């Protein structure tokens, strides 16, 4: 494989890390597979052992591989796959998989609804709504940025630390109301400066945009959320018969 040795190019170890990282994300190497040895990678890229080792160390630090003496370098990365079969909060979905969920930050404000927000919450344009922004991590890695709008009739708390866990659990706790139906849309987008910073990816990286409109048991519009997932770490699965 040819590396870019030109002036101004990324360091060689970084280029190697990036090549191996993309191979893992594209499932050329699956979880449990062993990467080529350091010697094989040296010959493959025509670089020094130190360069290869630095690339592998970076992959290990980012959670893609694990190094074990006598066993080599094993792939541990696996995209989080969410089946679209039932209504579930992000927190609950991660708990089921035994993954640690944390919230980097949570913000709540009261804003006036624009035309799009009003349409999706079935309210009049200009009515006040809650706007909740949250950056969620999984196993210490940024995974998804949520922007959620909820009707001000819900009378939600304005303390930001109330929004570090499951929003759906909070709705049950504060309003005794739960989600009974959702309508969702998925599309591919490129990250802007803000998303790139939040998700810790390069500007213009692919992200999975998920738009959710939720309804309560009476069919009332309850939630309008726009969520941006790291496309290199998250995907959805649909199974039909």
Automatic annotation (TrEMBL):
Any Pfam family matching the protein: GntR
CDD domains linked: WHTH_GntR
Domain HTH gntR-type as annotated: residue spans: 10-78
InterPro entries with a match to the protein in the record: Bact_HTH_transcr_reg (IPR050679), Chorismate_lyase_/UTRA_dom_sf (IPR028978), Tscrpt_reg_HTH_GntR (IPR000524), UTRA (IPR011663), WH-like_DNA-bd_sf (IPR036388), WH_DNA-bd_sf (IPR036390)
Domain of life according to the entry: Bacteria
SUPFAM superfamilies: Chorismate lyase-like, Winged helix' DNA-binding domain
Keywords: DNA-binding, Transcription, Transcription regulation
Protein name as catalogued: GntR family transcriptional regulator
Organism in which the protein naturally occurs: Clostridium oceanicum
């Amino acid at each position: 494989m040819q590396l870019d040795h030109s002036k101004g190019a990324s360091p060689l170890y970084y280029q190697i890390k990036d090549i191996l990282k993309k191979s893992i994300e594209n499932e050329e190497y699956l979880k449990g597979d062993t990467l080529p040895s350091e010697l094989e990678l040296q010959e493959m890229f025509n670089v020094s052992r130190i360069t290869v080792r630095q690339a592998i160390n970076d992959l290990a630090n980012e959670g893609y591989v694990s190094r074990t003496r006598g066993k080599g370098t094993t792939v541990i990365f696996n995209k989080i796959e969410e089946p679209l079969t039932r209504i579930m909060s992000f927190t609950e979905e991660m708990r089921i998989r035994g993954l640690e969920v944390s919230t980097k930050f949570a913000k709540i404000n009261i804003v006036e609804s624009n035309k799009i927000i009003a349409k999706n919450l079935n309210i009049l344009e200009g009515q006040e709504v809650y706007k909740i922004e949250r950056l969620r991590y999984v196993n210490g890695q940024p995974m998804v940025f949520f922007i959620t709008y909820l009707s001000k009739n819900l009378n939600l708390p304005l303390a930001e630390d109330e929004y570090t866990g499951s929003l759906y659990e909070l709705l049950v706790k504060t309003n005794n109301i739960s989600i009974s139906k959702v309508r969702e849309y998925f599309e591919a987008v490129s990250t802007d400066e803000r998303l790139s910073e939040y998700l810790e990816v390069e500007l213009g990286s692919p992200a999975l945009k998920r738009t959710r409109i939720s309804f309560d048991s009476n069919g009332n519009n309850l939630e309008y959320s726009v969520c941006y997932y790291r496309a290199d770490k998250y995907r959805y699965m649909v199974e039909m018969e």
